[in-house]
C-alpha cells in the first residue's frame, strides 16, 4: 500500500516536470537585433511580474512582447516607435522611467521642492540666530554680568 | 498663536504624506489603468471558434453596446467569473463576445461544453496579437464598448457580482440610452 502511494508520487512528479518544461526560449537569429531588443526590454516593465523587466522575465507575457519587439525591429521601426507601441497599449506604467507630464511633475520635482523648502528654512533660522547674538547688551545686562564676575573672583568656590 | 501653528506644520505635512502613502497601500498594483479607456477599440477580424470559416469583424458591432470578454480554457480565474457571465447572458441585457486568448480550439470547445456558453460567439486569438492590441496582460479581462466603438471600461481580472452590479451594468444601461 505504502509503496503504491510512493510510486504514484514519483510518477506525478514526472508529470509535473513534463508540464513545466518549456520549449527553449526563442531568440532572434541576428545578434544585433537581439541586443537592441534586450536593451529596449530592460527599460520596460513586465506587467505580470511587475518588478522584473521584460528582458529579465520568463512569463508568457514577456515572451510575447519580446517576440513582438523582434518583429518590430525587423520591420525597421525605431526605438521611439517601439516604445510608443508599448505605451499606447499598456500605459506609462510599462516604462521604468516615467515621462515628465502634468501628472508626474510632483514625482520628478517634488524632492527638489522639498530641498528648496528645507534650504530656505535653514537660512532663515540661521539668520535669525545671528541677529539675536548681535543684539548689543543693555546697561542692565552689563551690571548683571559684572556682578556674576565679581562673585566668581571673591569666592572662587562657585564651581 | 503663530508659534503654535509653526509646530503644527510638521504634523500636518506628516498627515498628508501618511494619507497619500496609505492610499497607495490600498491600491491594487495589478490593476494598471488602461490607456485605451475612452479611445476607439482596436479593430480586428478573427475567425469564430464554433465556425472557423466565419469571420467576425469589430465593424459588425457598430451601433451596439457590447462586452468583449477575454478568456481561455487554461485560465483558472475565468472559471470564477464564468457563472456570472452565463447568468448575464440569460438576462439578455448586453451581447458578450468572447476572445479566446492563446488557446487550443478543442480545449476551448470542451470548456464551453462543460461550463456553459454565455457568448453570442467567441473568436480565436491564437497567437495573442489581438490581445496585445487591447493591452491584455492578465486573463480574464472584460471591455465595455459603446455604440461608436469606444472602450468605456476595462475590468482587469474576473468580473465580480459587485463590479457587475455597481459598475458594468449601470454603465451599459447608460450607454444603451445614448
The share of residues in extended strands of chain B comes to 15-25%
Shape, per Cα inertia axes of chain B? elongated
Helices and strands of chain A, in N-to-C order? Answer: HHHHHH
Query: In percent, how helical is the residue content of chain B?
Result: 40-55%
Number of domains of chain A: 2
Could you state the order of secondary-structure elements of chain B as H and E?
Answer: HEEEHEHEHEEH
Task: Give the % helix of chain A.
Answer: 55-70%
Helix/strand class of chain A: mainly alpha
Radius of gyration of chain A: 35 Å
Top-tier CATH class of the largest domain in chain A: Mainly Alpha
Overall average pLDDT of chain B: 92
Second CATH tier, the architecture of the largest domain in chain A: Orthogonal Bundle
How far from one another are the termini of chain A? 92 Å
Described by the principal axes of the CA atoms, the overall outline of chain A is: elongated
Find the count of extended strands of chain B (DSSP E, 2+ residues): 7
User: What is Rg of chain B?
Assistant: 21 Å
Quaternary: heterodimer
CATH topology of the largest domain in chain A: Helicase, Ruva Protein, domain 3
Name the pair of protein chains with the most residues at their interface, and give those residue counts: A-B, 15 and 15 residues
Give an account of the 3D structure:
The complex is a heterodimer of chains A (159) and B (178). Chain A is mainly alpha-helical and 159 residues long. In chain A, 65% of the residues lie in helices and 0% in strands. Chain A folds into two domains: 24-99, Helicase, Ruva Protein, domain 3 (Orthogonal Bundle), CATH 1.10.8; 103-153, no CATH class. In chain A, helix 2 packs across helix 3 (60-74). The termini of chain A are far apart. Mean pLDDT of chain A is 81; it is low at 16-24. Helix content of chain B is 42%, strand content 19%. Chain B starts with a helix and ends with a helix. With 178 residues, chain B is of the alpha/beta class. Chain B contains five helices and seven strands, in the order H-E-E-E-H-E-H-E-H-E-E-H.
